[in-house]
Known about the structure:
By secondary structure, this protein is α+β, with helices and mostly antiparallel strands. The chain has helices at about 5-20, 45-60, 95-105, 105-115, and strands at about 30-40, 70, 85-95, 120-125.
Amino acid sequence: MFFKTHDAAVAYCAASAKEKSYKLAKEKKPMMKVIALVDKADGWSDEDFRKEQAKHAEIARSLGVIDKYSYSFPNPNPDGSPPAHDLIVEFYCKEPEKWQAKMETPEGKKAFEHAQSFTKSIVLLTAEEIDVW
């Protein structure tokens, strides 16, 4: 799901969390998992994009409502073609309602604006994670 606005992104994640009971198999606690597929904005070098993402991770941490946060930079495909996205971010919230409330604050809106400042598009997905082995 692609969102051009902060409010649309927050509403989507909140609605998804309410529709399903997200659980991590090992913890057995309700948890919302969000996956963001991100494309860097035009004109950003790989190095500058990586630095800005590191800054954004610290901004996300400062919000105090995300329980786990990780990101990956995809490698080229086996045939040498570029990956479909420049960045994959995953984060988990044990209390999605607190995350939603925080995203409505000036700090939450500033975090979303920061993400938009160095990205061309962000596709957000919510998921239920199932640990198999």
